[in-house]
């Protein structure tokens, strides 16, 4: 392999390329003149075969005029625009439906959360009420006990009948 200081020589018989590539590109090849397509005779069997192969509504038809082809192209563009609008409307309906569904789910979650909070508050109130009733029972039992003890101390050996537990104290 030659060193980088040596220049490579082109091979014998090979096309010599310009090493600096500063030259402008060559001009483009001349464009061939468009050849006019041969029009088929409408009575020709080839026209019938082409229509049968392409289908009745297919364009371009071999016997179509330029005006008919332009009208067909315009109709295709209109159909494409209509389809595009229909797809856009369908997408928008789907988005609205999804947004509505999302809002309904969000409202459901909010209602469930509200019911949960209300239930917790109700349970807390029940617990507070139960605790208050237990305190009152305890206070009442303590008062009954103190009253009995007072009666026992004051009355001594008298029999005191307890209306709640039907026991006799001495």
Automatic annotation (TrEMBL):
- Basic and acidic residues: compositionally biased ranges: 63-119
Biased composition of type Acidic residues is found at 42-51
Start and end residues of each stretch annotated as Disordered: 1-130
What name has this protein been given in UniProt? Uncharacterized protein
Q: Which organism is it from?
A: Caenorhabditis nigoni
